[in-house]
Design brief:
Elements (H helix, E strand, L loop, with lengths): L34 H4 L6 E8 L5 E7 L5 E5 L5 H13 L8 E4 L9 H7 L2 E4 L9 H11 L13 H11 L2 E2 L1
Parallel strand pairs: 1-4, 3-6, 4-5
Antiparallel strand pairs: 1-2, 2-3
Helix pairs in contact: 2-3
Length: 175
C-alpha cells in the first residue's frame, strides 16, 4: 500500500511543533513592573514600538508614561542592533532621572534590550503575546502618527524638515 502514496514513503514522520528560534533572552514580564510605573506616578518609564512604512522602513516611537511625551526616529532597517543603537542615542540625550524603564512588545527587533540595561541601568519589561493594549500609550501615539504616515506611504520621500512639521501636527517630536 505504501507504494500508492504520492511520495512513496514507507514510514510517515510525525509532525512536531518546533520551538521558535526567535526567543528573546532575559525577558521580564510586564506583570512584574512596579506600581509607580503601572500607575504613572513617576516620570522615566517609557514604552517603545515600531511602525512600518512602505518598503519596510520602520519608525521607532517612544512614549513616556507620566508626561505623555512622544519621541520618534526614522530608521533605515529593522534589525535589533539598529533599533537599540537608535534608542541609545535618544536616551543618551535625556536626563538620567528620566531613564528608569522601557516596556516592549515581543518583536525580535527589541532582542538586544540588555544593552539598555547595562549602558543606562534601565529595566526592560515585555508585554504578553498579542496584548498590545498593555502598552496603550505608545499604541495611541502610533494611531496618531498613522494619520500622516499610512502603511503605503514612502517615508524616504520626506526630508527631515517635512518630518518635523508632520510631528508638530501629530504632537510627536522626531529625533
Amino acid at each position: 500500500m505504501w507504494k500508492l502514496l504520492t511520495r512513496g514513503h514507507r514510514i510517515r514522520r510525525p509532525m512536531r511543533a518546533r520551538r521558535s528560534r526567535d526567543r528573546i533572552k532575559d525577558r521580564a514580564s510586564i506583570h512584574d513592573r512596579p506600581e509607580a510605573a503601572e500607575n504613572r506616578q513617576e516620570a522615566g518609564h517609557w514604552e517603545a514600538d515600531l511602525i512600518i512604512c512602505k518598503r519596510t522602513r520602520p519608525v521607532l516611537v517612544i512614549h513616556e508614561r507620566k508626561s505623555r511625551v512622544t519621541l520618534a526616529a526614522r530608521m533605515t532597517g529593522k534589525s535589533a542592533a539598529e533599533t537599540v543603537s537608535v534608542m541609545m542615542s535618544i536616551f543618551r540625550r535625556l536626563d538620567p532621572a528620566l531613564r528608569k524603564s522601557v516596556t516592549f512588545d515581543n518583536d525580535t527587533t527589541f532582542a538586544q534590550h540588555s544593552l539598555l540595561r547595562s549602558m543606562f541601568n534601565m529595566t526592560t519589561w515585555f508585554c504578553d503575546a498579542y496584548a498590545s493594549w498593555q502598552k496603550g500609550g505608545v499604541e495611541n501615539a502610533n494611531g496618531r502618527l498613522r494619520r500622516w504616515l499610512p502603511r503605503d506611504f514612502d517615508i524616504d520621500a520626506m526630508d527631515d524638515e517635512e518630518l518635523q512639521d508632520l510631528g508638530k501636527d501629530a504632537k510627536i517630536c522626531f529625533a
